[in-house]
Amino acid sequence: MRILAHICCAPCFTYPHKRLKEKGHDVTGFFYNPNIHPYTEYKLRMDSLEKFGEIKGARIIYKPDYDLETYLRGALDARDRCQFCYFTRLDETARTAARLGFEAFTTTLLISPYQKHEMLAHTGEKIADENSIEFYYEDFREGYKESREIARSLDLYMQKYCGCIFSEKERYFRK
Question: Using CA atoms, how far apart are residues 142 and 169, in angstroms rounded to an integer?
């Protein structure tokens, strides 16, 4: 199956990339993350992903839009900012996958024990239905530790928060 995998960062792509290839899938990554703030963090993640792609020969599509203002407006207006964020990134991935003739899409966010897993899966399924493309679901969380080991062995940049300014605030600002 030809799968377009949304990538939040290189470390989170290491295990799903390996796993999907082992299962015989043709995997291409897709980097689209207007949620990542500040821009220096966005650039570090993109550079690290480029490094991974070069080392592993991974195909990656980069959508260079860094539309932080639109993302922030939407996140501030949303009832649930994580839901908004998941929808924004997965919808763009699904539409790109359908346009380029992929059979399915997925996301590396499914590896993180810190993300809202059920919300991600539900969002992916809903977007798949709306875009007439399959959402490839796999619970990659069992490979989280391995993904970190692979990232360290390749000297990839490893961030300390999901990327959004709200998460960064929560990381440092405790009431």
Answer: 28
Q: Which residues of 83-98 are buried (b: 16+ CB within 10 A; e: fewer)?
A: bbbbbbbbbbbbebbb
Tell me, yes or no, if the pTM score tops 0.70. yes
Confidence of residue 172 (pLDDT cuts 50, 70, 90): confident
- Of 15, 68, 59, the closest CA to residue 40 belongs to 68
How far is the C-alpha of 135 from the C-alpha of 129, rounded, in Å?
A: 9
Dihedral over alpha carbons 61, 2, 4, 159 (to 10 degrees): -90
pLDDT value, residue 160: 76
Which pLDDT score, from 0 to 100, does residue 109 have?
A: 97
Order of strands, edge to edge, in the sheet holding 59-62? 59-62, 26-31, 2-7, 104-107, 134-135
Domains of the chain: 2-172 (3.40.50.620)
The SS3 assignment for 62 reads strand
Q: What does the block give as tokens for 15?
A: 């295990």
Q: What is the pLDDT of residue 27?
A: 98
Separation between Cα atoms, residue 7 and residue 92, nearest integer Å: 12
